Amino acid sequence: MGHSLMRAAKKAPSTSTLTRTDASGLLFKVAIAIVGTLALLVVWRPTVVHAQGAASASASVSAQTTTHVVKAGETLWSLAARYYGDGHQWRDLARTNKLGTEGAPELRVGMKLTVPSKTVVRGSKAAQVAAAPADSSVPKVALAKAGEGTLPTPPATKPAASASGSLAAQTAGKGNAAPVAASAGAARPVAPPAKSPAADNRPVAGTRAAATVSASTQAAAAAQDTSRLNLSPARGALMGEDRGMVRLGLVTQGEQVAARKTSEALTVFHRDIPDAAEAERRALAIIPPNRPVPRQGEFDAAPFLLSEAQRAASGSIARRRGASEATGHDAYPTRAIRTDEVELGAAGSTPFSVGQRLVAFGESRSADGKTVVAIPSGVLEVTEVEAGRPAVAVVRRQSGRIEGGQRVLPAFGEAAPRSAAQQLDTPDVVTSVRWLERNELLPTLQSYLLLDAGSAKGLKAGDEVALYHRGAGSPAETLTATVRLVRVEGESSTAIILRQYGHQIATGMTARRFAKVP
C-alpha cells in the first residue's frame, strides 16, 4: 500500500510538466501559422487583385458588342487605339470588318464597323501603344484616313482684281513704280523728284554734313521712307576713323530709274532686259563671227598647167642668202625654209619689184611628154631689188622643198572661201582626168589630179566631181572616187581627192560634176 502511494506521488508531477510543454509547442505552431498566413497574403494580394480586375474588365468588355460609325479623319489605327488602347491591334478590327485586303472596300465616312471585344490596355503602356509610329513599319492601310482625297477642298481665295489688271496697277505704290490713275486705271510713269545734296546719299565734297547725322535719326528716316529700302549705302568706320557715309557700289533711286531702258517694263525690281539690237551686239562681242576660211594650204600646193610662154618668162632661185659654199657644216647650201632669204636669178625681160609675190615650183611632165605641169613648193616675197645685184626674196609660205635651181613665176589666183556645194539632180559637166602625179604609185586621199576642163565650161573652185571607172569590154561604170576643185583656170582645173571607193584611179577616167557652189 505504501509502495503504491509512493509511485503515484512520483507520477503526478511528470504529467503536469508534459502538459505545459505541449501547450507551448501548440502556441508556437499557431504563431508560425499566423505569421506565414500574413506573409502569403502580403505576397499574393496584388496578383489576386490584378486577376480580379482583369477578369472583371474582360467580363465587362465581353458583355457588350460595339458598333462604330466611321467619321472623317479616323483610321484603323486610331480606332484600335480608342477601343483597345493599342493601335497595333488594327488587324483584328480590319479582319472582322473585311478591310485592308485586295478587292475589299476602303475605310469610308459613315461606314458601320463591328468592334470585336478584347482586353483593354490600361495605364502608361496604353499611351505608348496608342501613338502611331513615325516610321514606315505600319502599312498604309492602317493609317489611311477616312474621306481623305474625297472631301471637297475649300475654294482658293483669289486676289481682288486691280483697276486694270496690269503689272503697273499691281505694283502701284511699291518701290519706285508709277501710281495708277484713278480715272483711266492705267499706270503712267512719274518723273523722279529733283535731287538735292541733302537727299542724295553721296558725301558732298568739302562738307561732312552726312557724318553728323545721328544713328537714331537715320534709322527713323529709313523706317518711314520705304521707297529707298536696300538702296542706301551703309555707314561705317574705315581704319578706325568715322568717314561718314561709305558707298558700297549701290545706286540711288533716281540713278536706277535713269539707267533703265525704254524697252524695260516698270516693276519693283531692277532688271536689265536688252532689246534685240543690244542682245545681238552683246552676242557678237563674245562669239567670233562665222566667216568662211579659205583653204590656203590646198591652193598653195595645187599643181597647174605651165605654158611655154610662162616657162620662158620665169626666173629662178640661185641660192640661199648667207649660205656657205663649203659643205662641212652646211650640207644643203642651196635649200631654204620658211623665213629664209634667197637670191633670185634673172626673170627674162621683166624685172622683179619690191613686194612682188612669187611662186616657186618644180616641173613634171605628163605620160605623153606633151603637157608640162608646175608643182608649187612655196610662196616668196621680193624684199630687195638693187641694180647690179641679184634680187632678194624671203620665203613666206612653204608647201614643198625649196632649193636652188627651181623656177619662180609671179603668183596668180587666190584660194576660194569655204562654201557648201549644192548637189545637182543630174551631172551637168562631163570631162576626164588629164594628169596624175607620176611619182605616186597609188593615188589616194589628198592626192592632186588635173581635169581637162576649167572655167570655160563653168567649173568653179569648190565644185565636187565624181570619177568613174569602166572595165575592159564592160559598158557599166563604177564610182571610184569623188574630188573637190581647189584651183580653176581657163582650160584646166586642179582637184584633190576627198573620198575613194576603189583603187583604179588613172588618167582618162570619166569625171562628172555632181555638186557645185552657188
UniProtKB/TrEMBL annotation:
Keyword Nucleotidyltransferase found: no
Location of the region described as Disordered in the Swiss-Prot/TrEMBL record: 147-168, 188-211
InterPro entries according to UniProt: LysM, LysM_dom_sf
Residues of the LysM domain: 66-115
Keyword annotations: Membrane, Transmembrane, Transmembrane helix
Pfam families: LysM
Alphabetical list of Gene3D superfamilies matching this protein: LysM domain
Record organism: Gemmatimonas aurantiaca (strain DSM 14586 / JCM 11422 / NBRC 100505 / T-27)
Presence of keyword Transmembrane helix: yes
The protein's name: LysM domain-containing protein
Coiled coil: none
Bilayer-spanning residue ranges: 26-44
